[in-house]
Amino acid sequence: xxxxxxxxxxxxxxxxxxxxxxxxxxxxxxxxxxxxxxxxxxxxxxxxxxxxxxxxxxxxxxxxxxxxxxxxxxxxxxxxxxxxxxxxxxxxxxxxxxxxxxxxxxxxxxxxxxxxxxxxxxxxxxxxxxxxxxxxxxxxxxxxxxxxxxxxxxxxxxxxxxxxxxxxxxxxxxxxxxxxxxxxxxxxxxxxxxxxxxxxxxxxxxxxxxxxxxxxxxxxxxxxxxxxxxxxxxxxxxxxxxxxxx
Length: 246
Fold this sequence. Notes:
Elements: H1 2-9, H2 15-35, H3 39-44, H4 46-49, E1 50-53, H5 55-62, E2 69-72, H6 80-89, E3 93-96, H7 102-112, E4 118-121, H8 124-135, E5 140-143, E6 152-156, E7 159-163, H9 166-174, E8 178-185, E9 195-199, H10 211-232
Parallel strand pairs: 1-9, 2-5, 2-8, 3-4, 3-5
Antiparallel strand pairs: 6-7, 8-9
Helix pairs in contact: 1-2
């Protein structure tokens, strides 16, 4: 599946280059799986393991007095997104999709509890919780690069698919700044479990009379950023899932 997705989305690469992207993808995923049971320790050591870039964008958004929405995707070790936000923003609501296996779900929630105090399961109750947090001024965050069958249509890497737009709808409702962030593995540390978290300038959902057009325009902006990140570091993204539903 990963090889097929890479070939379809990155046809400008040679077969050898596509193979290398796939190989590097699995190397990263292997590291992520190995790191997951040690997230509590990684969080405790984050002062040395995690560097930040673009903090001025977070600071500017905070000055607006609006609750901040932080969006990212499945890049490098995406669990580091919330570790970083905990250091910068304090308690932040994190929306997630529950694992299909209930035993694995309990284990994942437990592993994340050390650095993700506000875990919000993606369901009707979770939507209400997000609204409560926004009303209280608490920042919320989520990974919005995966396919959602009930999501809004969008073209992603040249193919039609659907994308989750709940965060964008929330941003429009509360006139909240949206900040994109991503995790990159550093090459200057003693091992590969050293990262950099980059924050990008805030943008806002338009407030026109056409709500759907406002949402579509903002989702296009979010996915243009994802495409830029993938173009720059294609092996960082999680290709090994049925993103396009085919």
